[in-house]
Amino acid sequence: METKDKGQIVYYYNRERRLENAPAGARFALERQRARRPGFMRALVATRALANLFFALVFMLVAVLVVGYVQGTRNEGSVDGNTVTASAMWFEGHVYVTIKRSTSWLDRFKAVKPSMLEIRTGAGAEYSTGIMQAAEAEVRLRFQAETKPSRIAVIASVPGPGGETLDSVELIVLVE
């Protein structure tokens, strides 16, 4: 092993001097080797066609989310610690509504006692009212409707001792 003064190793290969005499293709390959790879987003919009495809997908995703939010339903809600779920069906001039009370997995460990609920459901001028007692898990109501409504409203409220409403939730249900 050849060494200089004080034990330093002597290298005979000099990469820079060798690249000076290298052809253009070798220098191009070396430049590409050292280039940083583009990130994920730059790769998605690297060409005009990829950029158009990416932005079209983003636009469609936003449109689906907005339409789902605008036309969506809210058939489940919580009133006074009780989870209430509603479903509706139209058959031969009547809308049949089923309201179910349930407790969430987390509420099972709490001491939430079911309370009496006043239920009012309807579409337009036609409506029906009912009472869900504390011991009941399900109530079924019906009201007349000549044509099938697309959605109905269900209001579940907890009546107070003086007739006032202590807590309420409004649900929007798609009619099947």
Tag the structure with descriptive keywords.
176 residues, alpha+beta, Immunoglobulin-like, four-stranded antiparallel β-sheet, 4 helices, elongated
SSE diagram, text form:
Blueprint: H1 15-20, H2 24-34, H3 40-44, H4 48-71, E1 76-79, E2 82-91, E3 94-102, E4 117-123, E5 126-132, E6 138-144, E7 151-159, E8 165-174
Characterize the structure shown.
The protein has 176 residues and is an alpha+beta fold. The chain folds into 2 domains: 7-71, no CATH class; 76-174, Immunoglobulin-like. It has 4 helices and 8 strands, in the order H-H-H-H-E-E-E-E-E-E-E-E. It has helices spanning 15-20, 24-34, 40-44, 48-71; strands spanning 76-79, 82-91, 94-102, 117-123, 126-132, 138-144, 151-159, 165-174. The strands form 2 sheets. It has a 4-stranded antiparallel beta sheet, with no helix packed on it. It has a 4-stranded antiparallel beta sheet with strand order 5-4-7-8, with no helix packed on it. Strand 4 (117-123) and strand 5 form a beta hairpin. The longest helix is centred in the middle third of the chain and has 24 residues, at 48-71. The chain is elongated, with a radius of gyration of 35 Å. The model has no long low-confidence stretch (mean pLDDT 86).
How large is the share of residues in beta strands?
35-45%
Strand tally: 8
Q: Low-confidence stretches at least 5 residues in length (pLDDT < 50)?
A: none
CATH superfamily membership of the largest domain: Immunoglobulins
Report on the biggest sheet: 4 strands, antiparallel
> How would you classify the quaternary structure?
single chain
The figure for the number of domains is: 2
Helix content: 25-40%
Mean model confidence by pLDDT? 86
Supply the CATH architecture of the largest domain: Sandwich
End-to-end C-alpha gap: 88 Å
The top-level CATH class of the largest domain is Mainly Beta
- Taken from the alpha-carbon principal axes, the silhouette is elongated
Per the CATH scheme, the topology name of the largest domain is Immunoglobulin-like
Order of strands in the sheet with most strands = 1-2-3-6
Structural class: alpha+beta
Give the number of helices: 4
Rounded to an integer in angstroms, the radius of gyration calculated over CA atoms is: 35 Å
What is the string of SSEs from the N terminus onward?
Answer: HHHHEEEEEEEE
